[in-house]
Every structure is written in C-alpha cells, then in structure tokens.
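Technical appendix A lists one of the benchmark inputs used to test multi-chain prediction within the project. The record comprises three sequence entries:
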Amino acid sequence: MTALSTETTQASRTAAIPFILKKAFLSACVALVLFSLMIGIRTEAGPDGQLTWWTRLGDLASIVGLVFGGSIVVELLRQWIGPTGAEKLVPAPVQRSLSLAGRFLGPALLVFTLLVPVIFYNQRYILDLAILVLTYVMLGWGLNVVVGLAGLLDLGYVAFYAVGAYSYALLATNFGWSFWVCLPLAGMLAAIWGAMLGFPVLRLRGDYLAIVTLAFGEIIRLVILNWQDLTGGPNGVSGIPRPSFFGIPLDNSDDGLAAKLGIEYSPTHRIVFLFYLILALALLTNWVTIRLRRLPIGRAWEALREDEVACRALGINTTTTKLTAFATGAMFGGFAGAFFATRQGFISPESFTFQESALVLAIVVLGGMGSQLGVALAALTMIGGFELFRGLETYRMLVFGMAMVLIMIWRPRGIIGHRAPTVYLTKAQAISSDLVKEGHG
Amino acid sequence: MDYFAQQLINGLVLGSIYGLIAIGYTMVYGIVGMINFAHGDIFMIGGFIALISFLLLVSLGLTAIPLILLLVLLVAMAVTALYGWTVERIAYRPLRHSFRLAPMLSAIGMSFVLTNYSQVAQGARVKPVPPIITGGYTLHEGAEGFAVRLSNMQIMVVSVTIVLLAMFTWLVSRTRLGRDMRACEQDQTMAALLGVDVDRTISMTFVIGAALASVAGMMYLLYYGQVDFFMGFVAGIKAFTAAVLGGIGSLPGAVLGGLAIGLIETFWSAYFSVEYKDVAAFSILIIVLIFMPTGLLGRPEVEKV
Amino acid sequence: MSGEPILSVDRLTMRFGGIIAVQDLSFAAERKKITALIGPNGAGKTTVFNCITGFYKPTGGAIRLNHDDGRQSALERLNDFRIAKQAKVARTFQNIRLFPGMTALENLMVAQHNTLMRASGFTFLGLIGVPTYRDAEKRAIALASDWLKRINLLDRADDAAGNLAYGDQRRLEIARAMCTEPALLCLDEPAAGLNARESAALSELLQSIRGELGTSILLIEHDMSVVMEISDHIVVMDHGVKIAQGTPREVRDDPKVIAAYLGTDEEEAAAVMEGGS
C-alpha cells in the first residue's frame, strides 16, 4: 500500500507539463459534471409555491476555470515541495524551536492578553472579539481534558455548554440568584450531565463513542428546543441578568460600581469586566488542567489514552477514570456556558448546534491534542479567521469546512504535536507525537 | 388497528429510504473503518440533483412520467456518485494512513462544505415539487371512516429499494468488484499483495454508496415533495443509527436497521409526540450501543489481550 | 510442597462458544517460587493467564489467591482492575503493552496509581498541594528510580517508553508490574524476542525478584533455556489440559511432554529438550 502510493507520487513528481495539463483538464471535467446542475442552474420557490429556475452559465464557467487553474497550481506545488510536502512545510528543527519558543510564547501571550483591555479600551469590536476568542479557548481547554488527555472522542461537547448556559439563565431569571452563586452550580450540573453521558458510553470505543456523544448533544438540544414550558423553546431565554462585581452592579445607577468608585460611568466597564471574567475562568481551567496532569488522575487519563488494557492490568479503575474525565471536561464547559449566558443576556437553542461542537473539537485537534498552548493558538486562529468572513455569512461555514479538511491534510497532529512529560528525574524532554497514542475514542 | 396498519406502511417506506442511506455508511465503515460524516450530505445533494434534473427534463418538454423518472434516477445516480468519488479523493484518501481522528474531522469538514455549498448554490429556502406520482389503493375501509391507504408513491419507493438491493447484493456477492471489496474489508495489505487495486476498490465503495444515497435523495424528494440544504444532517445521523442498529459492516443489517428506525420514528410520532421523534431515534442509538454494541447482525468484536 | 500455595487453580474451564480452550485445569503456584506454564502453541496458556488476571471470566472452576496475612481472594469473581488492585496480581503482556507516549518514569508512576490516588485525597487534596501528597509522590519517584536502576534503565528514565529498545521495553514492563507491589507476578512470554544476552539478564532479574523481594512468579515461556534455568516448578499444558507437572528435570524427562511438543518422534523431542537445558 505505502510502497504503491510512494511509487505513484514519485512518478507524478517527475512528470512534465503535459501530465499536469492532462490532470488539470480531467479535474475541470469532473468539476463541470459536479457543478453543471448545482451551480449552472439555480432553482427557487416562486411566490405561489411553483418552482422556477434560471441558468448561471457564467458562474459555472468561472468555477470550472478556477478548478482548472487551481489544479495546475496544486500540482506544481506538489512537485515543488515533494510528495510529503505537507510534513516538510514545517521542518523538524522549526518545530523544535517552536516548542522551545513556546516556553516564552505562553507567558508573552498571557501578558499581552492581560493588557488587551488597556490597549484596545476604545475599540469595542476588538474587546468583543477577544472575549469570544477567550470563550473558545476555555471551551477548547475543557474539551482537551476529554479528547486530548483521556483520548475519548466527544462530538457532543456543546451539550455541556448548553447545560451551563441554561442552568445559569433559568436559575437567574426564575429565582433571581446571582451569577456567583449560579456559576459553580452550572459547572456542577454540567459535570453531572457529563458523568451521565459518560456512564453509558464507557464500553464504547472510537467512532461509536463519537456518534453517541453526537447523538447526546443533539438530544439535549432537541429537548431544550421542545420543552417550551421550561426553556422557552426556540424563543430562548431573555433578560438574563448581567454579572455583578461581587454584588455591585456594573450599571449607571447610584449603586453601580462607577458611582461607588466615583468615576464616570461607561458601558465599556462591563465589557472590560467580562473580559477579565472569562480570562480568569479560562486561566482557572488551564491551571486546574495543568495540575491535574501532574496528579495520579491526570496520569491515569493519559495512560488510558495510551493503553486501556494495560491500565486495567495495573489496577486502575478505568470506569471512574473515564467518568472523571467526562465530568471535568463537562464542568469547564458548564462554566463557559454560564459565562456565555451572562454575556449575551439572551440564549436560544440556535447557539448550541453540532457545528459548535465540531468547531471546539477542531480547535483541540488543530492545537495538537493535549497541548494547552496549542489549543489557545488554535482558538485564536480559528475564531480570528472566522471573523474575517463575518461579512460573507453564507460562505463562512463553507470556508470553515474547507479549512478543516485542509488542516487535517496539512497537519493531522496539530500545531504543537509534542507531549511534555508530567514528571522527570533529570530533564523534561518533549515526546514526539509519533509515539503518543490518540486513544480509543 | 387500521391506524396501526397505516403507520406500519408509512414506517416501512421511511425505513426503506434510511436503509438506502445506511448501506453507504456501513460499506464505507466496513472497508475504511471511518464514519463518512459527509454521507448524509451526499444524500441531500442527490435530492437536489434529482430536483434540478427533473425540472430540466420537464422544461425540455418531456411528458412521459416513467421516462422522466428513469432519466432523473440515472442522472442523479451518476452525478452524485461523482460527488462521492470526489469527496473520497479530496478529503479521505490523503489521510488514509494518518492518525485516526484526522479522517473523521476531515469528514466533518466535508459535511460542512457540502451543506453550505448547496446553501450558497441553491439558496436556503425549501424547494417544493408538486406531487409527481399520484393515486394509490385503499386497502381497508375502516369503520370510523379511517382508511388504510397504500399510495403508488409508496409502492414505488419500496419496489425501487428492493430492486436496488437485489442488484447491490448481486454486485457484492457475485462480481469481481464485490470480491475485491470484501477482500479489502478483511485485510487491505493482504488484498493489495494479492493484486487487488485497493485505491480503486475504496473509490468504488464511495461511488456505490453515493449512488444509493442519491436514490434515497430522489425518493425523499418524491415522497415528501421537497428538499432543502440542511436535510442531510439529521437523515445522515438517523441512517448511521440504522447502520449501527443493524450491525455496522453488515449490508442486510443496514437495511434491517433502516426499517427499524423508520418504524420507530413513525410509531413514535403517531402515538407519542412528533417533536420528540428525533430524540427517540437518537435514544435508540444510545440504548442499542450500550446493550448490543455489535447491533442486530454485526460480528462480535473480541478484545485481544 | 509445603505450606499453602499462593495461587491455586482448581478445575478451571474456559469455553468460547463451542471451543473448549481450557478444561478442568488444576495446578498451584508455590509461595516465593517461580512456576512456569509451558506447552505448545495453542495449548491454552494465555487463556489461563487471562482468566487469572481477570480479562476473561472463566466458564467454571475456582482460582484462589492466598495472601500472606491469610486473606483469600477468589479471582474468578473479581473483575479486571480489582484483581490488580485488591488481589495484588500484576501481569505483563505477550505483545508489550507499555504507554509508549509516556516516559519510562511516568510508566512506573502510573503503576503506583492507587497508592498515589489515596495520598492525593482522591485528587482534591493533591489539587491544593498538601505536603503529604508531595511526600507520597517523592516516595513514588524513589520507588520508580529504584526499579529503573534494577533494570538498568536509570539513564533512560525521561525517554519515551516507545523509544526504548525492545529488550528494554520488556524489562520496563516487568518493572512497571512490580511497581504495583504485587503478591503474584504473572509474565506472559517475557523472553519472547530477546537475544541470548538479554534472556540471561531477564533470568537474573526474575531470580532477584523472587530471591530478594520474595515475590511469587507465574510465567508462560517458550524459551526453554529460561524456563529450565529459573523455574522451581513447571506445569505442562496441551490442548487445554494439564499433561504433566514437576521440577524442570522431571518434566524434561516426561515422555508425554516430549510427545506433546513434537508429535511422537521422541528422539527428536528429547534433543530439543536437552538443548534447552
């Protein structure tokens, strides 16, 4: 198999221009068949329910031309870089220096993040974006516990985000409880749901686990959507209280923080407060995860990812180990959800679709499973990249999907593919990702 | 009783559609060992291709409904099969020997690409078609005025499914391609050593799966009278559920699972609540996997120590 | 044979569907001794191992582990991780099952999971960094270093287990099993794939485990030189039943054993057995 494929790539490497043109021509032919009906013809339901259609031959021609040109470029690149070009794009020394730079990159990034509200105080848009990025950093770190450390694939992570968000929203709107009371509750409820999901799927592996977690996520969303009495169904929950500064509201009133401090009120205060709130939550997640990795439970998670059978032979209770991984990851998701609810002031089932789960999973995998810094960088890249397509709402998911495919082909092991040992005698050496297992799920 | 009989018919029809999609999942899983997340979207694309080719043929002045349907079927199968081939070529083949999560994420990405591609290409609104096959039979006239009906449309869905399954079974059990497929399922390296073109066989698996899904898409279009860009997601998960329920890797299992899911969904909607029908289907998936991880007809997996 | 054996297997039977892999097998492993389970391929040795270590549930029979303090564990009733945790039976695998992406040291730390878990107050105390946990971790590292020194891998402590040479991985797996501080150590073909020098080192290691630490060992092995050299007692299986047992010398001369190994050609078989001694 491998020998065969290298042979063919070798052949294509030495191929000449006619070969490239032939290949491009074939690609264009395929594209013509693929797109002739879907793009060449546009259908639309008319006003009286009658379907109408019209042709878009110009679009069709340009997209086929694009495929032709693109195919030539890709083929040229492939010959230029070589068959394993994707790997070589980031050569090993660069990777090593990257991981070395990681030691300084992390703290530098943290300092910069702390200063963001100072630097961009008057740029509401950037602050909002930064909050969004941090939310995904936190979700990524949370999911990293399950996927990256314990090696359990979870495609329904958004369910816990939803549980956290609705817990806070419902507790706050129905009972008037404050954010600081609800936050731990939201985390706990999410953790319970995490364990509940974990329990039935204990015996499942790989793709089965993936599909069950996906189904679980969908069940939660559908229940939220349909249990109208409790959740408001598709209308969602609105009027969710904003967080207070430990009891002091951040508003224009006389009791507000601004009045108490004797400074002029500005709506930015709340944004800055939210920024530091999510930063603190994300850092808490990070801190706890780093600590847990160095505790027996964290090592057991990683051992579980490496070899479950060996774990059992060593007397490790794999059931509780898996459940704690699910619960811990879910708890962080719940925290993030509570934050999301208080930040938005309004939540609806629309925010908790499978796409969100896929996005968070993509962040974890792109980050390099298990690497905290990698996940943060991936979240920054993904959410930032997403933001670039803000104007082109419909193309956004299209581009996201393409990016996912390309990233997987380019770097299936993520940005930072090294594992740092949790304990060492003389010197901590990074472990190459080729050795690290990806777990059963 | 009449109501029950009617739901049974409806459930079997829906189940046939799921079964056709489920075959694609189960085949790909059997050979490549991955969930082809984009398969539900291939089904959706199949529906769209059928819709557009139908519109074109009608505009060209064709009036003979059977001829139109036959042409639509052939066009949909051919074009959608090419989609299946392309998806495998672009998103899965480069990752064949990669780390196991990679093809799965690539597949999820591909699913997003296809969903949003049809949204961009054909708009977000639901595309309705008028009923093409009308008429039917009244099987039983109930006392309370409730009649059990079997429409021509339903007959067609089920009979097309049966014919395709027969062809497909023949393909897998009697042809060289089928033998190659089964060989790759057992052991790809060994198959390659024995002269099986593994790449081509895997490609053909995707092509056949996509062709069957396109038929399901066309049946869906005719039966429900509409398609939209988002229909692939839920149908895909349900069909996957069907494949798992039947025992993944088993072809008769996929059909059996499809019928089971179709029936469960229909009966749940009929007797309990329509809103929670998807919840029911997904719960079944979870329950089956817990108590019967190998499904109805699957092979048990022995843990090697 | 004096005193109570550490492990007694009584009429163990294991069926897979219609196939009987092990039938009415009874044997005992003496305390502080090395007992070897040998037999041709497919004799059911690994199945016996999997029954003892809880990976299979026996169809019938009893497996008793007698602890030093008189406590008795019914292994056929405990499942997977409890056998290692409560009955203190540790095992290695025929095809090495280390945690390849973790360092040698980490592998040995994972083996001390249950001790460390208690010390960390089931994570909660460890999370806030109580000193008792830190002490326990230091002790765990000391034990691990001690084992790394024994297996001559101290300088590779911070290397990924997957990067070690094959023979080193075999020894590391034994050290990892020993870090669970077992009463009985079960080794599934520990000498498989080792060269003569490595086999000799292995024999030495196993003898020191028995001699210095007093840990009882049960092993499956094909390498007759190892078996004959270190075993105190040998149980021979063929087609799921016990065909002979005794000291290495007794077993070597047993015609039934020779027949089992090489059909009925006794002369040839005798030559193999002799060559192994």
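The radius of gyration of chain C is 19 Å. Chain C has a mean pLDDT of 82. Comparable benchmark entries are summarised in Table A2.
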